[in-house]
Amino acid sequence: MSSTMRLVLAVAAVCAVAVSSGASFDLGPIVRVAQCRSQCLKKHSIDGSCEWWRHGETGCNECWQHCESLERQWGGIGNWKATAAAAQQQATASTRGSASCDDYEYKQCPSCKTACEYRKGQVVEQYLPSMLPAPHRAPVSLTKNDVAILMRKIRQEWKVFDYYPGIRTPSSLRQDEWIVAVVEDGGVTHYSWEEWMPTLDSLKEGPLFEATISWRDVDSQLKHQQVLEQKRFNDRVRQFFLEKYGEKVLEWRNQDEDQAIPEEVFRRFFFRRKDHESHQIDENSEPSTVDSEDERKQTQVAKESFVVSWEPETGGLMGNQVADSDFAQISLLPGTKYLVRIASNEGPGSFPIEVDTRPSSIQVHRIKKNFENIYPWAFLAASMCAAIIVCIIIIVKLLRKGKEVEPEEEV
């Protein structure tokens, strides 16, 4: 076969891989870097940090930086969209196979050898967000040798902001933040600010239980969460001003009656809106307003599919089903309590709900469903009817009692 023909076939193979891979959001490169850096912390860190300026942490920092260099060289970090990723892996396979961790550069940097040896043993493969377990809520809690990847949403796309050793990971999350963490044993977990859950619409009995799951109210759930976050922020603002300026302002207010601070100005000082004071308190604590409702709706439309994921609460066989709409029907085994969530290849996805197919919980579900079908006005109407009937009975009894009383004869 001629060299020209080989080149044409190679280009065709790359194009085929690009088409088949689609535009998936691949976490594989950053997860591999974090796993490598966890080894650096484990073998070269003294106190769980890896900063180059700290005494005794220079070697750890060299290993830390070398993990990303190796991923760029062998795995193609930065390719968030997995276009032709497999072709690139094939192209770098020969380089990676022939690379040695005993070269001259590793004699000059012994700690870099840790990254090299660990990275050579890693398997390069896609890691989609839908493969993640259910997210956790803040505060973020990690151990010394864990590594956190802080990501922020910029123009509706998640971008890596920074990597943190476990003990230096931010404990709280802003509205536009998502933390993917690699634990010491190589496992992956994540923390999400977006707390929304799907709804169990129905659960039909049979040889396999048929559960209908929907997630039509995601926007309203997130909007409610934003309102609560805004309230918590306003409370922090009030507390800050009261602690910092409260006594002084009260002193000025009561100092001179002619120049006293009016009630309206006084209240505006202590109860300002977030827009005026957010940058004066703490930039990290300010709720983000990056995602408006319109932008969120556009993002929801742009997403091609969701993945309904379920697993037994005690562990066991997991299931996944792709859904192109905002609801799905899944089949579950009887006698098992499941955790069901909506995963997404574009972000952290939902928190799980419990779907219980055990006999005792089925009866409870039926009772709840029956009560859900009864509207408040039905209770009101029934109560009024009962009250009217009672009044009629009382009136009838009084009338009968009056008729039964005979007048006494005069002597």
From TrEMBL:
Using the record, list the residue span of the signal peptide; answer none if the entry has no such feature: 1-22
Keywords recorded for this protein, A-Z: Membrane, Signal, Transmembrane, Transmembrane helix
Q: Where are the transmembrane segments?
A: 374-396
List the residue ranges of the region (Disordered).
278-302
What is the protein name given in its UniProt record?
Uncharacterized protein LOC105359805
What organism does the record attribute this protein to? Ceratosolen solmsi marchali
The beginning of the lineage is: Eukaryota, Metazoa, Ecdysozoa, Arthropoda, Hexapoda
Name the encoding gene, please.
LOC105359805
